[in-house]
Amino acid sequence: MSEQTASMDLRKSTSIERRAPVEKRDRTLDDGTRMTLRTGGALVQLLSRPGSVDEAWLRQSIDVSSPVDLRHFSPGQWLLVSNNPLDQTAIAHELRDTVDLVDQSHGRVRLELAGPNVQAMLGYATGLDLHSGLKASTMTLFGHIGVHLTSIGPDVYELIVLRSFVESLVEEIERMCRMPQRLPQKEVGDFKRL
């Protein structure tokens, strides 16, 4: 076998195939919850020394042409979320010497859940009181899976999860949406008598 043929075979065997993290990108679950996998766009983690930068300064410093959402991630860290590609070089230039950027677009997955039962379903799986009206983003556990949860509208939440956990998360959400959300009225009445 020639050296050229061997190098071509090596390139074929090491080529990276881009696949969607789950097969169905949009689906309606048993309880009517709409689940949409957000692909494309950009997800960039901004890292700074805790206390050295505040969110107002970041919002003022980031000059992008497409709409972006800046979400708190942890002390000194934010996620820059966009449905469109971003010019990360320009953003890095604006934030130089203060904030580091890490592209998470291929390492994390955005999953949108919408419907009247979403809040109740998330309440079963997380330790957050979503009925008090979550207005900000937060890190939490969904069962045993770490997710970044954001309320993006009435009865609409976005979960950001590591790509390697998305299949397990989707299966867990599907299972939770098959569970009854409330007891039948007869059983509720029986509990009141006790």
**Level of helix content?**
25-40%
If helices are DSSP runs of H or I spanning 4 or more residues, what is the number of helices?
Answer: 6
Strand order of the largest sheet: 1-2-7-10-9-8
Radius of gyration: 21 Å
Pfam family, one: SoxG
Organism: Rhizobium lemnae
InterPro entries: SoxG (IPR007375), TrmE/GcvT-like (IPR027266)
Biased composition (Basic and acidic residues): 9-27
How are the SSEs placed, and which strands pair?
Layout lengths: L2 H12 L11 E3 L5 E5 L3 E6 L7 H7 L7 E6 L2 E6 L5 H7 L5 E4 L4 E7 L3 H8 L12 E5 L2 E9 L2 E7 L3 H13 L6 H9 L1
Antiparallel strand pairs: 1-2, 2-7, 3-5, 3-6, 4-5, 7-10, 8-9, 9-10
Polypeptide structure, described:
The chain is an alpha+beta fold and 194 residues long. The chain folds into 2 domains: 23-40 and 106-183, 2-Layer Sandwich (Gyrase A, domain 2), CATH 3.30.1360; 41-104, Alpha-Beta Plaits. 29% of the residues lie in helices and 30% in strands. The chain contains 6 helices and 10 strands; from the N terminus they run H-E-E-E-H-E-E-H-E-E-H-E-E-E-H-H. It has helices at 3-14, 55-61, 88-94, 118-125, 166-178, 185-193; strands at residues 26-28, 34-38, 42-47, 69-74, 77-82, 100-103, 108-114, 138-142, 145-153, 156-162. It has a 6-stranded antiparallel beta sheet. It has a 4-stranded antiparallel beta sheet with strand order 4-5-3-6, covered by helices on one side. Strand 8 (138-142) and strand 9 form a beta hairpin. The longest helix is centred in the C-terminal third of the chain and has 13 residues, at 166-178. Residues 182-194 have low confidence and may be disordered.
